Structures are given as C-alpha cells and as structure tokens.
Amino acid sequence: MKIANVEFPPYPLFLAPMEDVTNPSFRLLCKQYGADMVYTEFISADALIRNVQRTEQKLHISQDERPVAIQLYGREPDAMAEAARIAETAQPEIIDLNFGCPVKKVAGKGAGAGLLRDIPKMLAITKSVVNAVSIPVTVKTRLGWDDSSRIIVELAEQLQDCGIAALTIHGRTRAQMYTGNADWQLIGEVKNNPRMHIPIIGNGDVTTPERAKECFDKYGVDAVMVGRACIGKPWIFQEIRHYLQTGEHIPQIPFAEQLSILKDQVERSIDWLDERRGILHIRRHLAATPLFKGIPNFKDTRIAMLRATTKDELFAIFNAIETMVVER
What are the catalytic residues? Predict the structure, then answer.
C-alpha cells in the first residue's frame, strides 16, 4: 500500500494521533514495537501561527520515527493553509487534517468534528491545505455528526476530489464520542465504493490481534489505525503484527520485560519534558496499562503509583510490584 510516494508493508499498522499521548517519546516506542506510521498530537493551526512555544515543540520529529504525519486542526482555510506551510518545514512525510476530534473545546468551536456540521468549510480547508504544500495531505474524520447524518460515503468522495492522498475513518459519529461500538460496516462501504481510489484507513475498537485481522479481511481497508488500545501497552503493535503474519499469538512478554518497557517509557517522557511534567504525562499510560490487572489488593499500590512525583519514587513502587508478582 502507498500513500502518494510513501510505501508501506502488507497489513500496515498506524499509531493514531492522540492529544497528551503521542509525543515523540511514545511515538518512538510504538515504532520500535512495530507501528508502520505514527502521528503527532493534535496541533492547533492558530497556536502554530502565533508561534506558541509549546505548540511549536510538537513539530519535533526524530529520524527514527519516520514515516510520520503531523496532524493539524483549525476552522479557517487561510489559517490552516499557513499552519500547513509551517508544519511542512519540519519535513514530515504527510500533513493530516483533523476533522474528527469530538471534544467540546475543539468541536464546539467549529474545528475537528465540528466541521461535520459545515461540509463546505471542511472542503474549503482541505483544498486550501492541499494547494499550500508540496507533500501529501490526508484527512481523519468520523461517520458524521450524529446518527441522522452518517454522511461518510458521500463525504469521502468529496474529500478525494479535493486532492487528499488517503482518508482515515473513525467508525463513530461525533455524538457517540468514544462510547458504543465503532461501525466498520460503513468504513467498509467507503472502501468498496468503486469511485474511491485513495487508501482507506480504518480506526475504532482495534484492541486485539484478531480484531485487526478481521478489519483487514472483512472490510478490506488498506491500513488499520490503533488508538486507545496502545496506551500503556505499546507492544500491542508487535502482538498484532505477529498474528497478521503467522495466524498465531506471539508468546506473552514476561511481566518483568513489560515492566521494563514502562520504565523505559517513563525515562523517555522525562527526557522529552522534565521530571515533573514527564511523570504527569505518563500517569495516563500507567492508569490504562493492562499489566497490573489481576494483582490482588492492588488498590493502594495503584494510588501511590499514580501520585508519585519523582522517578525514584515511581521506580521504587515498580520494583515493589515486581517483587510482589514474583513471590506470588
């Protein structure tokens, strides 16, 4: 499969863009465990144009994480085009447009999934960005605003006509947020539309190797994007990749090795930010990881782990957990 001139192996697996998750340290870790392409956190076009330092920091790309897409969101064609030109100077392989973020502070202001209520403006933004840069432009969006406006089949054709190189579809409406089940039937309908000739990437509820394979086999998508399932478990890409290639499950990574991966993630996060912010950033991963599920009487330890403020304090808790698991 290719997105413009960017070529991927069979059954490509992509790391979804996620705010406060897909910073460079986490992207590199997911790449190490088998993600074929990674996406930055959401980047505000308006903040990028205003030279907001924290936003500019999100443009940082490591050579080891390529291919990488920079994802932008905004609500005005001119601003999005200018932001895309700035982002292009970071030399990503792809510029991705976020027309799917459902959170109120984005969608409620007419950006992200909010543009599903203003399709002419969405298309104007897309055309403006495609014309502004020389690298491939892709789009990530949802099925529609709500169940009464599941417009993705028609919208996909309109976006393709704007010149995008690929389309990612999250199989939920904006009204669903992240609840209910992703509707892959509609994603498959877009993929199997004979008028569509760009790659279609499916996203939503890909949490197991079996589900990833089903999405490729049943719906025919060109790539599968993994989102929340990799939070606290970057090795899920390795598990899915092995299953897609062999039809068998990879032997489970030993507890000590999984814990070592999380320690590595903590250190990378601290290196990227600083100790205080790096540990704050990692708490979401520690809260979500399946690694500690099933450990008896873990509540107090979990609370202490999520309240730790230094690396030494956090690693001492990790070591105590490892000892606890070994002695069971």
Answer: 101
